[in-house]
């Protein structure tokens, strides 16, 4: 079950800069009060939509809490709520996230990583793939709390060098539904380059595996380098002392 927040915008297209800041502020409040997980957001044609996953048993309290937040927001007079008792999808077709949407996912127990949607397939790619897909980019960022979408590091792409990897940028196509453990962060508009980037990798939402493996590998490499430096320093010191004794 989902709770749909429909916000009427001033114009007939996407949010202007002021409205986008106000939407980001509303999303931040929704996350802060942890009323319900944010599972999606989209905007266009004069509307901005936010979707929350709610439980039937908590429907009344969730609606009351969201209405309270909206009444104190810039959208007090321009928003409405609707309960969607069925998933937002056509029968047999998974509702995939939209380009620009970013999501936090759990890593290392209580920490978070982040990924975002760069684009959907071209008409030719969709035929080749056999259906709708989205291209996901995983960020190297890891933090203790869900980040704001304005954080510059979220635009970076994780580079895989652990084990047999040789520097591949961590992007993948997926057709799977977004996992329940992924939390909506906000909108990070893809650049023109990102909107046309190509990728030959397909998979599921196993972002945490790559982030954790790469971070552990980097930490191991860092410790190994520090150990080598200490050993080199010790050997150099011993060589100097030996030279002094035999000089």
Which overall shape is indicated by the principal axes computed on the Cα atoms?
A: globular
How many beta-strand elements? Answer: 11
Head-to-tail CA distance between termini: 83 Å
Please describe the biggest sheet, giving its number of strands, its sense, and whether it closes into a barrel. Answer: 5 strands, antiparallel
Q: Number of DSSP helices? A: 4
How many distinct domains?
Answer: 2
Helix/strand order, N-terminal first: EHEEHEEEHEEEEEH
- What percentage of amino acids are in beta strands? 15-25%
Structural class from helices and strands?
Answer: alpha+beta
Q: What value does the Rg take, in angstroms?
A: 23 Å
Please list the strands of the largest sheet in the order they lie side by side.
10-7-6-5-11
Q: Could you estimate the helical fraction of the residues in percent?
A: 25-40%
What would the average pLDDT be, to the nearest integer? 84
Low-confidence stretches: 88-93
Overview of the molecule:
The chain is α+β, with helices and mostly antiparallel strands and 247 residues long. The chain folds into two domains: 2-72; 101-223, no CATH class. It contains four helices and eleven strands, in the order βαββαβββαβββββα. It has helices at residues 17-33, 59-71, 123-129, 207-245; strands spanning 2-8, 38-44, 47-53, 79-84, 101-107, 111-119, 134-138, 159-160, 168-169, 171-174, 183-187. The strands form three sheets. A five-stranded antiparallel sheet has the order 10-7-6-5-11. A four-stranded antiparallel sheet has the order 2-3-1-4, covered by helices on one side. The longest helix is centred in the C-terminal third of the chain and has 39 residues, at 207-245. The radius of gyration is 23 Å and the shape is globular.
